[in-house]
Amino acid sequence: MTTQPDNFGFGEDETMLRDAARKFFQDNLDAAALHGIVAGDSSPLRSSEARWGRSLWQQVVELGWTAACVPERAGGVGLPLVAALALAEEAGRAAFPSPMETTFMATAVLAACNTQAADKALERIAAGAAVALAVMDHRGSLEPTDTDVTVGPDGRLEGTASFVQEAQKCDAFLVSARGAGGIGLYWVEADVCDVRPDHIIDLTRDQASVGFGDTTAEEIAPPGSGDRALDTALPAMLSILSADMVGAGEWLLQTTAEYAQTRVQFDRPIGFFQAIKHPLVNLMIEIDDTKSLAYNAACAVDVGDEEAINLARMAKSRASDMAAFSASRAVQFHGGIGFTWEAYVHLFFKRQMMSQTLLGDGRYHRTKLADALISPAA
């Protein structure tokens, strides 16, 4: 295992970036503002139209956050992955409805391609383009070879990518497609695709199936190399999502602890009782564990540790379990108001439930870890 720097390589630049992001969200997107943006319609029959703050996203682009981890050769800042985790954590704490995390993930994939076309795509991200990954099949498989999209000799795409996150918010898609020579990666502008929104519980995100019917695409990684780029980028993708879950968990913990100090039952704040105290302490421990695992995995990516994928699977496994625990405790401890539409808790509850299964839940990643770490001879 490669030796890692102290504090996961989280230095002065990363600290300043995190603090600036936290202040930005405190000033511009508290829970009440978020609820007003995404939760205006409580009907279960509401449309699947994405509701999000485009003006806030534009401010984020102008602040240079999307360019933070783009390599300097492509016009970015060139910060390590731990900087993206700091931003993802603060975005999770605010449940920021935006394509920021999908763009970070696409950045990791493009950086792993090592092609001139990929560098040009990174330049577009550094200039403000929002990108979503269209790499899953109809079963939600993470295996690159399971894609439902094909590419012909003329470079045109056919088929459908499923479970595409933030599809209605993005300017372009990075698509995995199977050709005669294997899996390649392709850049497709969003306005030429057939985006069919899914109806999901998470109000802070959108999801869609994206159809490619004889669609012209720009080759980013040639057939036979796209699957390697996706595999290389997977640890970064898992780490980014885990950091988002840490941020959402921290919001749920803080909000529930504050409520436990003000809600009175039996002439005492409910936080006085051990049935409330102990689970909240357990949640705090789970959040801290997840945070350490996520930053450890990101640091492993930054230093080129070959164990990065196993460390990232550990982080996502722990994050998925923590997400479910944080969401359920918050709703339960808010009592009769916890499940109501007017309580802001439901926004973070739903985001955590969505995040729990995105890119594989805890059981999936523990199975993968067992396959990797336990010798068949044992």
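(the above was protein one; protein two follows)
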Amino acid sequence: MTRHSLVAAALVVLSTVTPTLHTLDAQTVGEPLPAWTSGTLDIHQIHTGRGNAALLVFPDGTSMLVDAGDGNPEPPRGATRAPDASRSAGEWIARYALRMLPSVPVPAIDYAFSTHFHGDHLGGFNNDAKTSAYGDYTLSGVTDVAEYIPIRTMLDRGWPDYSYPRPLDNPMMNNYRAFLEAQSAGGGMTIERLTPGRSDQIVLKREPESFPSFTVRNLAANGQVWTGTSTTTRRHFPALEDTPEQDWPTENQCSMAIRVSYGRFDYYTGGDMPGVPAPGYPLWHGIEIPVARAAGPVDAAVLNHHGLGDGNTEAFVEALRARVWIIPSRAAGHPDRWVHNRLYSERLYPGPRDVFSLTLQQATKQVVGAPLERLSSHRGHILIRVDEGGARYRVLILDDTSEANTVTAVHGPYDSR
């Protein structure tokens, strides 16, 4: 079966289980989500229970997948799979994307963006996983998504040699590289290393002239951080030759970060970037603060490292000053108690803020306790829908127990900065 016929078959299956999306402007609780319309920016944080995944649909219909994880531990520490355990996380992500992407003859993801090389962001490795129909690699996370939807450009921090800070040689990475080789040879995929500082690497593909206020700024990768001026960057990490090997950067510290801007609206996401060094390690291991300062104040932000306490410091929260925070939770301890308190602290910055979590484990509820009642949502897909021009946006919660795209809550509208 060809890739196009496989996508067509998937669309036929989805059409049998998914109601036709409304084309109304209003979002109504209890009704299916109205379809994306030209000029709107959609940012979907997808809940599968297995890791991070976000789908962005830009104002002209260009699409980007930020992570496609499948590496979460099973309960009791991890979240249950959503909607259920009948499919892999990658397949659920692909089916979600097929429902949310603009209607075109052949659906495709224009950019897939992997913040860093951990299973809950990229897709883990399992010898028992299905083998691809397109090459000698197994299906998990992003490799699984691409089985159902073509990916045109893959962006990561390591291409082409995957050698920083040391050679990335393990079953997961070897499988991912086999995927890249097969897709670039026979699937038409382009692979690029993200270049910090640039705002011309991730661009509108269809109607760039219609939305001149839309940009994606590459903030950081591999410790190289945008300065906030032109495309210049500075190196936050010292040279490896001047650093004891036991102090070399970790995978989380090498995470990629971006800022998406549309008119007055700004959005930050940065993988598992930490802000607090492990005990006894050098201070430069905390990289999130210079990255947040480069990003500047934003309207909406995804917490680093699922809301764990090694990140999301006071300085990070104060620098971003978000009106809307998203917690990509997937396991017990997401979010950390003190991180939760920082998000609501008006000593760090004044004004209201709403915090949304993909899910909450019972253990987290027991540890954090009553303060979690302040959360605006603690179960479901989270969609930030930005009006044409970027002046206003809403946050919609979608039911994650089925594929009906039912809106369970609407928050806003919020005025962009």
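Reviewer note on protein two: The chain has one domain: 3-415.
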